[in-house]
Amino acid sequence: MVQDNPEFHIHSKDLKPSSEDLEYRSEDLPAPSEKRDTHGRLLTPSLSAPVIHNLDLLSPALLAKLKTKASLTAKKKKLPKSIMRDVILSLCEEHFITRNCLAQLMNRDPDSLRQQHLKELLEEGLLRQAFPQNPTDSRQAYIANRDRIIKTSR
Hints:
By secondary structure, the chain is an alpha+beta fold. It has a single domain, classed as Arc Repressor Mutant, subunit A. The protein has 5 helices and 6 strands. It has a 4-stranded mixed sheet with strand order 3-4-6-5. A two-stranded antiparallel ribbon has the order 1-2. It is globular and about 40 Å long. About 6% of the residues have low confidence.
């Protein structure tokens, strides 16, 4: 047996239960069954667009693009509501994105972002939820409602 081998001197009781040296936590890694596009966004057959739920899993190119879109909000704490709305809608183009990822990109508190901006954008029909049947779903994500945005801008 391996444990009887004198060269094998480490026993499980000597091992730490976790390691801070690991680059990723297991919950940050995609499940083996998860499919991702070339940008690192989660693909799921139940949704009409890919999902951004973890910025660390995105391609550098997409992450840079999102950070550029959010740069003004990330730098300034006080901005007109219209600018905040435009940035949110821009970040939510082409994919669903979670509130926490939006908050990280925009350097905002996730709860404040929901209360001050996301709720209103949803009510106006400018954003759609990934899981409208369960608004408090922990996986909730948002996408810009392009049809509605085009109609309201005319």
